[in-house]
Design goal:
Blueprint: H1 2-17, E1 35-36, E2 39-40, E3 50-52, E4 57-60
Antiparallel strand pairs: 1-2, 3-4
């Protein structure tokens, strides 16, 4: 009986003490709208994308490094 109680306490402790682990998706989904002068924009836009944490850039659409704006844009 003591072994069973010890096993239950151990399982509960493991479930509570260890933080959950989640896999991160490599895809960032975002849906929004672009406005110009308060109205929805129509036509072609030229966008530049960078993923950074304020101190280091991890990815940019043109492969450039550093914390600056990418040189090339995406239509």
């Amino acid at each position: 009986m003591e072994v069973r109680k010890l096993a239950i306490v151990l399982l509960v402790w493991c479930a509570v003490a260890s933080p959950p682990v989640f896999a991160q998706s490599p895809v960032v989904n975002y849906q929004g709208r672009i406005t110009a002068a308060g109205t929805n924009f129509t036509g072609f836009g030229f966008f530049k994308f960078v993923i950074h944490d304020g101190a280091e850039a991890y990815w940019s659409n043109d492969g450039s490094t550093g914390n600056g704006e990418p040189a090339a844009s995406v239509t």
